[in-house]
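Continuing from the previous page of notes. For each protein in this section, the sequence appears first, followed by its structure tokens. Read the first protein now.
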Amino acid sequence: MIQCSGLTWRNIKRIGLFDSGVGGLSVLRSLVSRLEYSGEKEFVYIGDTLRCPYGNRPDRQITSYVKQLTSWLLQHNIDAIIMACNTSTAAGKEQLVSYAPVPVLDLIDPTAALIAQRGIKKVGVLATAATARKKAFSNIIKSIDTSIQVTEIGCPLLVPVVEAGLGDAHEAQEALKPYVKELIDQEVEAIVYGCTHYPFLDAALKNVLAGMGNYPALIIDPADCLATSISGKSTGALSVQPDAYLSTKFATTGDAETFGRVASRCLKQNVGQVQSVSLNELTAAFVLRRLQKPAMSAPLQLIAPEAVS
């Protein structure tokens, strides 16, 4: 179970999440639907859709964006930050941990722990170009068990499909096919959604696997692994109550109306009003944060999660 300097999931009340776009909503969905006390939480989510995707950007630029987003989130009195963007984790999680005065959680560590615990020996990761280039999942997985074979591939066609709200469309299956074939050729036992956008392609991936001889790959969603590591117990099926996101604040650097429409489609609920945040506002938040006395992030303990069903 994750513990943050005496804080537990139960007494963390306000959680900030960021992503390059709508992908991190898959993390929000898992937290809201699978965790105890989620109804008592307030979530603040910002998607940097104006600068999406992050996958082909250099690490230094991604880290700069992340510090801006984090600075904005910190203005909303959050108790913890979730990096709902694996590309940003690969680019510089350590820098964000040093920068933020609250606990910072990512999805890669609990996913690697789950894979090792379940004894999976051949893993395929559908990632962004940046995450694959950094071998973000491979490095963490192999730090636990060097015998695990990891095939990590960049999939630049997938994020635009999700951002366009086409996750359930035929275009999604066509975009997935070459990447899935590459993993099947490696005889992987499990396929990991290495980008938080990709769980919104779940139906499309299952259709592609069915069309390739019903290939029996276990599909792993890192958002579920994070939920398990927080709660300390296995998670069940997705089950979101009506109006589950009423206490969530949504914001975007892009067009608020478009973000709201795509987010509502992804979450299958109306997300309500979305705040538009300008890049100037992000810059101002970052500058203000730099002027304040820096504080160390609370230490974070991660214990390997239970296996998810």
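Done with the first. The second protein uses the same format. Note its length before scrolling.
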Amino acid sequence: MIYFVGDVVKLRSGETGEIVEIWGVAMTWHKVKTVHGNKFASTEQIESVIKRFSNKKRSWGK
């Protein structure tokens, strides 16, 4: 699954947090801001997206 900066995710450890940074080429890593501080998690360690940041932009001419 593809994750974006600003997504609130649930980790396999049971913690929830917001994705602050994303980087990587062959393996994608995410910096997740949790209640207990920042954690580094690979894509495999993220269980699900709880809330997705939505930045709806207006279309042309409206």
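What the second structure shows: The chain has one domain: 8-51. The mean pLDDT is 90. We return to this in next week's lecture.
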